[in-house]
Amino acid sequence: MLEFRGVRLALGDFRLSADLTVGTGARVAVIGPSGSGKSTLLGLISGFLVPDQGQVLWQGRDLAPLSPGQRPVSVLFQDQNLFPHLSVGQNVGLGLRPDLRLSPAERERVAGALARVGLQDMADRRPAQLSGGQQSRVALARVLLRARPLLLLDEPFGALGPALKDEMLDLLAEIAGQTDATVLMVTHDPDDARRFAPETIVIHDGRAEPPVPTGPLLDDPPPDLKAYLGG
Ligand SMILES: Nc1ncnc2c1ncn2[C@@H]1O[C@H](COP(=O)(O)OP(=O)(O)OP(=O)(O)O)[C@@H](O)[C@H]1O
Questions:
Q1: Contact (CB, 8 A) for 183 and 176
Q2: What one-character DSSP code corresponds to residue 188?
Q3: In the chain, what are the domain boundaries?
Q4: Candidate of 7, 8, 15, 39 to mutate for ligand 1, largest count of ligand atoms within 8 Å of Cβ
Q5: The whole model's pTM is what?
Q6: Does the pLDDT value for residue 152 go beyond 70?
Q7: 191-216 burial, b if ≥16 CB within 10 A, otherwise e?
Q8: Atom 17, ligand 1: residue with shortest CA distance
Q9: Which residues line ligand 1 (CB under 6 A)?
Q10: CATH number of 2-72+148-229
Q11: Nearest CA to ligand 1 atom 27
């Protein structure tokens, strides 16, 4: 279980508070207006932001003493965090060893992850030689290999067209299921939330609300959310 216990953070004039829990293995969308604090909430989990008060706990353990690299967390951003000068295989291999000194067994695992996302023939290409959808697959292969218990996504597929985005969300759901990951995904698109996330955290007025079932929330949104969704 992921728990925000009395978390308070101020960034300039901006304030965010969060008291909520997310069950292990849950898939949760994070939605709210621009500037409401969605990325901030993820930053508190990944450790790039530190709460002024309160604690973020994973499986009952306060994450505060752990640096971002030590946390049980993978993060995926819209730009897919691919290194342009490394090959596809090397980009995926970084998920196992940042120094890329991979053993033969680790190389096998990289090949297996690339095959899993349908890129077995592209290991030697550079990211720039791939389509947007293929680049997303490389990023997913790395996530698959890292197999960290918490997966945070910040509008990961925002640059893709609708059909490709749906395909990626389904692949992501499969991978999350396989690795038993707990997933939080920031999105501006309610259809993404419906497709991928049984539960949703709404952030508004400086507060991250506990997750609620996505379908009923979007079918009958509270006034703030309705205004934001344009309904
Ligand atoms: N270092 C900082 N100093 C002051 N204010 C900050 C800082 N970082 C972020 N903010 C403010 O915190 C608020 C929340 O930002 P955040 O990026 O979490 O919003 P968001 O909901 O992810 O927005 P978007 O949907 O536009 O990506 C914003 O109002 C932003 O301007």
A1: yes
A2: S
A3: 2-72+148-229, 84-147
A4: 39
A5: 0.90
A6: yes
A7: ebbbbbbebbbbbbeebbbebeebee
A8: 39
A9: 11-12, 14, 32, 34-40
A10: 3.40.50.300
A11: 34
